[in-house]
Amino acid sequence: MPIIAEPAARAEDLPDEWTPEHVGEKLIEAFKTLRRMPSDIGPAGYGSNWPAYLHDFADLRNQVEGMSAKEPTRPRWRTRGAKIPPTPAEISRMLAALSWSIELLPTSDHDFRRQVQVWAMATAWGLNRERLQELFGWERNMWRRRRMRALEIISERLNAKKVGVF
Prior knowledge:
Elements: H1 20-36, H2 57-65, H3 88-103, H4 110-125, H5 129-136, H6 140-160
Helix pairs in contact: 1-3, 1-4, 1-6, 4-6
């Protein structure tokens, strides 16, 4: 059964060709999608071999009624921060965007690649960019200029390869 790709955005919202700003948006979107990927690999860890208890309506009602004022109003049986797994189309776009810095940027300067990836990851995941600048030893304006130049190179090469805008 073929997978039907869902559009990332409406066609009238997409630019005619790749721009540095659109490339940046797609890199940020790729890191957001990466964060939503299931990460349940490896051993399960500690747990019980007993099956999960099936709560009936009366149990759930009593749990809600028994909550004190200090507790959140969210019922106990709901999980906090449940991840909604990405669709196959989102995963395809993520893989394409994450490969750009490896395939399209010069191989001689690994820091160039790292700067655009760290920027997109920090923006997508809400990380402190100033702290990352200190960690890597990057000056703020230099990091911004090199990031913009990297996005320009990626957009120029995507346009030269005639890659469709998504």
